[in-house]
Amino acid sequence: MARFGLFLAATALALNGVDACQREHLTRRHVDGHTLKPRQTVDFPPVLTDAEAILVNSFDNNSISDWSYYYTHDDHVAGRNRGMAQWTADRWSENGIPSSLATYNVYLNYPVSHSLSLTYPNGSTFTASLEEAQLPEDPTTTWDNRIPTFHGYSKTGNATAEYVYVGRGQQVDFERLVELGVDLEGKIALAMYGGAFRGLKVKNAEAYGMIGAVLFSDPGDSGNLTIENGYAPYPDGPAMNPTYVQRGSVEFLSTYPGDPTTPGYPSKADSPRTDGSEVLPGIPSLPISYTEALPLLSALDGYGFTGEQVNRSNWIGALNVTYSTGPAPGAVISMSNVMEDATTDIWDAIGIINGTNSDETIVVGNHRDAWIIGGAADPNSGSAVLVEMSKALGRLLQVGWQPKRNIVLCSWDGEEYGLIGSTEWVEEYIPWLVETAVSYLNVDIACSGPRPEFAASPEMYSIATELMKKVIYPSGTTYTNGGVLNTTLYDAWYEETEGDLSVLGSGSDYTAFLHNGIGSIDIGAGGGALDPFYHYHSNYDSYHWMSTFGDPEFTVHKAIGQYLALLTYHMASDDLIPADLQNYAEQMHNFFDDLMETVEAANGTLDLGELSDAIDEFDGRVSEVKALETQAMEMADMNLLAVVNHKYRDWQRGLVSVGGLPDRQFYKHVVMAPGIDTGMWFRYAPVTYPGITEAVEAGNFDLASEWVSKTAMAIHRAADIIKT
Ligand SMILES: *[C@@H]1O[C@H](CO)[C@@H](O)[C@H](O)[C@H]1NC(C)=O
Ligand SMILES: *[C@@H]1O[C@H](CO)[C@@H](O)[C@H](O)[C@H]1NC(C)=O
Ligand SMILES: *[C@@H]1O[C@H](CO)[C@@H](O)[C@H](O)[C@H]1NC(C)=O
Ligand SMILES: *[C@@H]1O[C@H](CO)[C@@H](O)[C@H](O)[C@H]1NC(C)=O
Ligand SMILES: *[C@@H]1O[C@H](CO)[C@@H](O)[C@H](O)[C@H]1NC(C)=O
Ligand SMILES: *[C@@H]1O[C@H](CO)[C@@H](O)[C@H](O)[C@H]1NC(C)=O
Ligand SMILES: *[C@@H]1O[C@H](CO)[C@@H](O)[C@H](O)[C@H]1NC(C)=O
Ligand SMILES: *[C@@H]1O[C@H](CO)[C@@H](O)[C@H](O)[C@H]1NC(C)=O
Ligand SMILES: *[C@@H]1O[C@H](CO)[C@@H](O)[C@H](O)[C@H]1NC(C)=O
Ligand SMILES: [Zn+2]
């Protein structure tokens, strides 16, 4: 799923009324009104220690390509590929990292059959194929066992009704429709992908009394390399294939992720089960291509309100229709969706290198399951990188290295359905993780394009950026702002982001870690509006696409892998745990400024004094612990260093609020969470001070006030942990 490429992030930006194609605006969005960090100088070529050189030189783009080929040539939908899990564990073991499978027994559903047709008022019909075109050039798109287009966890059922185009299907869109008096009750929703996690579109449609949902990908979200601008569609060129369909989960992930039937505890064969109805949709839904959406949209032209009259940003796409709401009297969609329920095993491969300090652990993970036979970007670019990294770490082990901290390598299953493999594993090992985990490093889509794109907990800023300078980035990449010679990963990243390391929302396997107070980073590279269109969750996310358009020489894969290896090495082996608490404090102030703006915009009054005091206290404690750190390092005092390291390991546990956020107890982090109605977007969805911000946005100032206290209390707890 889950980690969205840059391009989709650009779409998200457009929702804020800014030109999606101007990447510099994109990256400023998070830091509105804040100072960006200045570009730092970089040595070229990078200067590496012996250990770093062993790691970096061990990466080979040819073997990464082999691993990519392996992962992208078989069905590996969640719960359907134990062989691939075992293969992964075997490769890691061979490379010197003892690995085995952790099995969970979870609820999933699989597609059986589906249909969609439109009956026009004059009685004639259009029947959708619900298929992506088979391309002879791209072998896995033609396989007999290719995976149908469907929504994971969608409801089995039929719906026949007139239908309404609901824009992006966010709450604000529905509110606008209600304001305009458009009849929603008993109708089917036709929604455009983008802007919010797809499950929330279905959830909103259901909440407004609609009986089915159809989601389409609009060519307006496909950047500048479009057919209209003269580019051929895939496989002949970089433009979006007109039959592209985005599969994906419709679990209500912003409520809780993981197995819907075992919230808060691991899914074992004999675990008690709930019905999961809090996070499972109650209406059927289907994903379609723009080619098949066009007749549905056209039939609404002239009915209800035109897109222009609706007047909401990002309501209108690039098709030659008015994006009218409808309904068109007598234009009726008939849809059927049959899913097979399964309570079935899924398999995480887990590899462990014991550290000398058994009470400190670094976890590194990638998911392995995909919606399609391929999955060359999502997620198996990351899987290929992890296999290559196990080889690199193995070489270091061979020359006698033992990390100070335990390293746990994880290949998660079931991420696509709802972060299941990682969530269940965290739920099983939570006591040990709370005691020992220093951080979680995630790589989902290592590469769907050339632009490095990271998000992290703010305390990882320094180490994350320092290590970017040690990796040479493939040249020949074109950047919006002009190419840079002698490019390191840092240069490429800075050029994209102006030094902004994004806030983690949700949408990949770091979620369960972060919301238990374990700092995380999510790394990868995506495409921008000027790069080949990435067919997310489609048959065209294939080895053929990757090796012709995405990363033809697998050199971006290699650079991302080298970076992850260096990061793992330093997190696990440095005497001092790298923790940039000053940056965390600075970000808390920035988020506070954002919160004040939110309160002002809501015309409310809210006393934020307690929160402000807590942040100030945190500031003070950071200065103290940094002084202690300096003392420990200068005196090479290992006992003192251990004291500091344990503070760095533990401090973020303070930021989790035990009862969880209002109405969603899984999400406990008081500083950042996925937005309740934006969900799992990688880049823009995070809401900061979520307990307070969302209460303010809902106009509930009593709740907001309660959350000012709870948030302040959590920050005081974190401050207490680092107190010297
Ligand atoms: C019915 O209406 C559709 C849409 O306007 C049109 O394409 C089709 O040709 C019409 N069929 C007949 C039989 O008139
Ligand atoms: C991309 O397309 C947009 C909108 O059509 C246009 O304004 C922009 O200049 C294009 N960017 C480039 C670099 O061609
Ligand atoms: C559309 O909305 C904007 C801002 O919400 C408003 O300024 C503008 O007048 C509206 N346009 C129309 C045609 O209603
Ligand atoms: C768009 O649709 C209108 C009305 O159906 C048609 O007249 C026009 O030629 C179309 N434009 C393009 C560029 O296809
Ligand atoms: C649902 O629709 C399918 C396809 O049109 C049909 O075969 C099936 O009988 C319908 N089921 C029910 C319960 O109406
Ligand atoms: C790692 O440590 C664990 C717990 O102490 C122990 O059970 C395991 O055998 C060790 N593994 C290796 C490869 O030494
Ligand atoms: C690139 O690196 C080479 C070797 O270090 C150096 O001579 C050259 O000046 C660098 N070019 C730029 C543009 O920095
Ligand atoms: C690996 O990189 C080299 C040099 O960039 C290139 O010639 C080769 O084709 C690449 N291998 C693959 C499998 O793409
Ligand atoms: C806040 O007040 C302004 C000006 O009175 C008004 O335009 C705006 O709609 C109000 N916002 C909310 C959320 O009530
Ligand atoms: Zn993914």
Please report the number of helical segments: 22
Q: Output the CATH homologous superfamily of the domain at 3-107 and 342-573.
A: Zn peptidases
Within the CATH hierarchy, at the fold level, what is the topology of the domain at 3-107 and 342-573? Aminopeptidase
Our Rg estimate from Cα atoms comes to 24 Å
CATH secondary-structure class of the domain at 3-107 and 342-573: Alpha Beta
Shape: globular
- Helix amount: 25-40%
Report the count of strand segments: 17
Judged by helices, strands and strand pairing, the structural class is: alpha/beta
Mean pLDDT: 92
CATH architecture classification of the domain at 3-107 and 342-573: 3-Layer(aba) Sandwich
Strand content: 15-25%
Low-confidence stretches: 2-33, 478-483, 679-684
Distance between the termini: 42 Å
Could you describe the largest sheet, including whether it forms a barrel?
13 strands, mixed
The ligands found in this model are: 2-acetamido-2-deoxy-beta-D-glucopyranose, zinc ion
Biased composition (Low complexity): 257-266
Domain Transferrin receptor-like dimerisation: 606-722
Signal peptide: 1-20
Protein name: N-acetylated-alpha-linked acidic dipeptidase
